């Protein structure tokens, strides 16, 4: 009897030690994840001109790379721009990042007939890489013509959200002031996982301008086009009549 009680007590003590060890390891990894997140910085730069631009996102990470950590950049794009899925697929094969789109992209729809979309970029953290740089080509959609004399329209692009996670941090309940959000686990998996979102990053806007048509010129352009068409028809008919071309 005493032997059974002693065995049960030893088993419970061992289980308690393992559980306490797992809890301490989880708290340690979550603390490291939070500190690593606080030392991270995200910046955005727009390069090139015209309808075809490049969004260059730079992520400054802590030199002490957390083992098993993963990063995702969440871009929330406005309806005034789009990305080419085929171009991105080709770029991701040649780069150290993968991308996931939340919806299908129609390349031909004008800005006022579509909605914004979200992309999830998964950079690789292989090796000591305190700085990540991701370049995404974007393209301006056609906008409605302006009737107030303006020749350009502005499109505001937000800084991406930085999300981090590690498999060793399973209890994400004490990561204040940061938030826990759900996002796709990988670029080829639609299931979601909890990620820690950087809360104190600069959420500024980068403004780009795209040319638009002048709506006040619709009437004179149509009238001029009709006049030129009629003159060409008269001249062509006269030429055919003169040379007996039937």
Could you describe the 3D structure shown?
With 246 residues, the protein is of the alpha+beta class. It is 29% helix and 35% strand. It contains three helices and twelve strands; from the N terminus they run αββββαββββββββα. Strands 5-6-3-9-11-10 form a six-stranded antiparallel beta sheet, with helices on one face. A four-stranded antiparallel beta sheet has the order 1-2-7-4, with no helix packed on it. A two-stranded antiparallel ribbon has the order 8-12. The longest helix is centred in the first third of the chain and has 37 residues, at 2-38. The chain is elongated, with a radius of gyration of 29 Å.
Could you tell me the mean pLDDT?
78
Strand content: 25-35%
Strand arrangement within the widest β-sheet reads: 5-6-3-9-11-10
Number of strand elements: 12
Characterize the main sheet: 6 strands, antiparallel
Radius of gyration computed on alpha carbons: 29 Å
Q: How far is the first residue's CA from the last residue's CA? A: 119 Å
Q: Give the SSE order as H and E letters.
A: HEEEEHEEEEEEEEH
């Amino acid at each position: 009897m005493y032997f059974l009680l002693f065995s049960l007590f030893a088993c419970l003590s061992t289980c308690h030690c393992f559980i306490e060890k797992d809890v301490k390891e989880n708290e340690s990894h979550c603390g490291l994840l939070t500190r690593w997140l606080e030392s991270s910085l995200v910046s955005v730069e727009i390069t090139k001109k015209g309808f075809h631009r490049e969004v260059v996102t730079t992520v400054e990470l802590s030199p002490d790379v957390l083992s098993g950590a993963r990063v995702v950049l969440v871009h929330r794009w406005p309806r005034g721009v789009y990305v080419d899925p085929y171009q991105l697929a080709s770029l991701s094969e040649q780069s150290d990042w993968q991308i996931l789109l939340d919806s299908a992209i129609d390349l031909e729809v004008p800005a006022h007939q579509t909605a914004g979309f979200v992309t999830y970029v998964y950079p690789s953290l292989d090796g000591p890489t305190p700085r990540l740089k991701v370049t995404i080509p974007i393209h301006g959609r056609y906008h409605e013509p302006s009737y107030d004399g303006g020749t350009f329209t502005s499109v505001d692009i937000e800084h991406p959200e930085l999300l981090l996670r590690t498999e060793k941090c399973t209890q994400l309940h004490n990561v204040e002031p940061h938030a826990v959000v759900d996002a796709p686990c990988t670029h080829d998996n639609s299931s979601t996982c909890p990620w820690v979102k950087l809360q104190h990053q600069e959420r500024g806007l980068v403004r780009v301008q795209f040319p638009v048509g002048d709506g006040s010129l619709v009437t004179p352009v149509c009238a001029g086009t009709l006049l030129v068409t009629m003159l060409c028809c008269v001249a062509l008919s006269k030429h055919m009549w003169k040379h007996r071309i039937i």
